[in-house]
Specification:
Low-confidence stretches: none
Strand order of the largest sheet: 1-13-3-11-7-6
Bound molecules: zinc ion
Shape: globular
Mean pLDDT: 94
Number of strands: 13
Radius of gyration: 16 Å
Helix content: 10-25%
Strand content: 35-45%
Structural class: mainly beta
Number of domains: 1
Length: 214
């Protein structure tokens, strides 16, 4: 396995990177008990209309990871090894090829400044949405186009009768990781979740690696 790139995400930070078809994104929780928000957009070539000559890969803000379609096609609100993550255009974007934690969330949107204000009365709190927007912006993704994320290691349990959700401690133990193989060329964003309540009161780093197993 060849590691092409690795990024250490300090607590409450994010990154964006290009993932070519066939490459694998590994998201690792080195200390455990930490959620990582992941989002993906289809990459378009630099020769797409409107791009300046010589510009690098850009994301197509019109084709994005869709938690709704992933739930629909997988017939489950959970994903694990073997699950396929679909785009809003029903394109398979990523396949989970390894998962040492086993529990993740597809239901809730990335935490945002507005969420911290509405739910907790805290202004100006760091958030996954702002971290993803900061790093996806240079690839051509406006903040308002960032959809519901795949929330790795996040444990959200719905009540089967009322539908009310409970957020529990993250599923990750130290060193747990998830591998996601790109089925098409992608621009992906990853954030070490900024929400104390989602992470049992602690905020930990996340490791992101790109592997090429081909
Ligand atoms: Zn978050």
């Amino acid at each position: 396995m060849t590691s092409l790139r690795s990024v250490h995400l300090d607590p409450q930070t994010g990154c964006a990177l290009v993932l070519d078809r066939g490459q694998t994104l590994r998201v690792r929780s080195p200390t455990g008990q930490q959620v990582a928000d992941v989002v993906a957009f289809a990459a378009r070539s630099a020769r797409s209309a409107g791009d300046a000559p010589g510009t690098g890969p850009r994301a197509d803000p019109d084709e994005w990871f869709s938690s709704g379609r992933t739930i629909d096609y997988g017939m489950s609100i959970y994903v694990t090894t073997g699950s396929v993550l679909y785009s809003n255009r029903s394109t398979p974007m990523l396949t989970i090829t390894a998962d040492t934690a086993g529990r993740h969330d597809l239901l809730v949107s990335p935490c945002s400044e507005e969420m911290f204000e509405r739910l907790y009365g805290v202004a100006g709190h760091p958030s996954c949405l702002s971290n993803l927007a900061e790093h996806l912006g240079p690839f051509g993704v406006p903040a308002g186009r960032i959809p519901t994320t795949l929330n790795l290691f996040m444990v959200v349990t719905p009540d089967p009768v009322t539908g009310r959700i409970t957020i529990e401690a993250p599923s990750s133990r130290p060193g747990d990781h998830v591998d996601l193989r790109a089925e098409v060329d992608l621009v992906v964003g990853v954030a070490a979740c900024s929400a104390e309540i989602t992470n049992r009161g602690t905020l930990e780093p996340i490791e992101v690696e790109v592997h090429d197993d081909r």
